[in-house]
Amino acid sequence: MPASKRNKKIFFSALSVIFAAVIIYLLYKDISKSEYENISGSINPAYLIAAFLFHSMAYFTRAWRFTVQMRDTQKDFGLILSIHTVHNFINHLLPFSTGEFSFPFLLKKYSGRDFLSGTALLVNTRIYDVFVYSIFLFVSLFFIDSLRPHIGVLLTLNIALSLACVLLIFLPAGILTKFTFGNARIFFTRKWNKFVTEFSAYNSERKIPALALSFVSNMLIFGVFWSILNGMNISLNYFQTSIAATVFFVTYIFPLRGIAGFGTTEGGWTLSLMLLGVDQKTGSVVALFLHIFVLISSAIVAGIGFMYLILHYGKKIKNAE
Questions:
Q1: Nearest 10 degrees: CA dihedral of 8, 10, 260, 36?
Q2: Could you tell me the CA-to-CA distances from 99 to 90, 92, 122, 253 in Å, in that order?
Q3: Half-sphere exposure of 147 (CA within 13 A, CB side)
Q4: pLDDT digits (tens, 9 = 90+) for 70-120
Q5: Residues 6+ away with beta carbon under 8 Å from 141
Q6: What sign has the CA pseudo-torsion 201, 204, 206, 207?
Q7: Which residues of 145-154 are buried (b: 16+ CB within 10 A; e: fewer)?
Q8: How would you write the chain as a 3-class SS string?
Q9: 164: how many CB neighbours lie within 10 A of its CB?
Q10: CA angle, 273 as apex, 268 and 278 as ends, to 5°?
Q11: What pLDDT digit, counting tens, does each position of 270-312 carry?
Q12: What Cα–Cα distance (Å) separates residue 310 from each residue in 74, 83, 102, 287, 321?
């Protein structure tokens, strides 16, 4: 790696850590250890168990969605599930959603599927997720009084986002393939053409089941947050929780994320909870607890998935090499 690029990477990483540290300091400088323990220690263990179960079930439904959209015979559910658990944990750790690249990488390593094909599959499912978020947000806007003064602008943006997703999901494959280059001699154009072709093929497969599984998986994820929040005596209804959770997901694409998202994730959650009437101290404590819970839960599931990959598929890869 050239020195200039290496220095730029070091600078950007250091800036991300500093930015996260500043947010953490501002959020928690006035919160004592006893205050944190009083708020976080009040959670009922039954809610934690429920949250973990919701989280685990979401992995199954998302892996099922991947296999639903695969048009060939490479539909080993155990393989896809284990890859997804590892990929999701890596995505929690890396900034700017760069952990997403681990999915096509692992898929290629353990199943031989082309990297661009795996990328097209992941992008396809993410569009389904964005569409589901937009539907939840559309409904939630009518149940949150604090957002009603801005409902006109929010509805306009929401409808525009929903229509864009609908076009991408339901546009005929023949039209999508028109967005390819006629001259595919250049490396970029060849790769782009392949990506569009793969994306169109995945998008032509079983859209309604994929959408249904997207709704179920995201309802389960919202259920994780609802369980934690209500277990900590933050009485939010399901629609309010979906608004707060959407802010949480937005922080994933923020470029200046600290290590494992610490700082920006807490900032996003605290802001969303404050908009819903929770005071800053309580919101900050809940945000940190939520973040740590998600990381630990993801790490446990990813550890199981990684062991499953090694035990059941490691020999296949070794023999193939």
A1: -120
A2: 5, 7, 12, 11
A3: 22
A4: 866 556 888 999 999 999 999 888 876 778 889 999 998 888 888 988 898
A5: 147, 148, 151, 154, 155, 158
A6: positive
A7: eebeeeeeeb
A8: CCHHHHHHHHHHHHHHHHHHHHHHHHHHCCCCHHHHHHHHCCCCHHHHHHHHHHHHHHHHHHHHHHHHHCCCCCCCHHHHHHHHHHHHHHHHHCHHHHHHHHHHHHHHHHHCCCHHHHHHHHHHHHHHHHHHHHHHHHHHHHHCHHHHHHHHHHHHHHHHHHHHHHHHHHCCHHHHHHHCCCCCCCHHHHHHHHHHHHHHHHHCCCHHHHHHHHHHHHHHHHHHHHHHHHHCCCCCCHHHHHHHHHHHHHHHHCCCCCHHHCCHHHHHHHHHHHHCCCCHHHHHHHHHHHHHHHHHHHHHHHHHHHHHHHHHHHHHHHHHC
A9: 14
A10: 145
A11: 888 887 888 888 888 888 898 889 999 999 999 999 999 888 8
A12: 18, 11, 16, 34, 15
Structure tokens at 85: 């658990």
Burial class from Cβ neighbours inside 10 Å (0-12, 13-18, 19+) for residue 281 reads middle
State the CB neighbour count (10 A cutoff) for residue 6.
10
The one-letter code for the residue type at 166 is V
- Give the whole-angstrom CA distance, residue 122 versus residue 84: 10
| CA-based max dimension of the chain | 66
Buried b (16+ CB within 10 A) or exposed e, 46-82: ebeebbbebbbbbbbbbbbbbebbbeeeeebeebbbb
Average pLDDT of the chain, as a whole number: 80
| Model confidence pTM above 0.85 | no
Q: Where are the domains of the chain?
A: 73-320
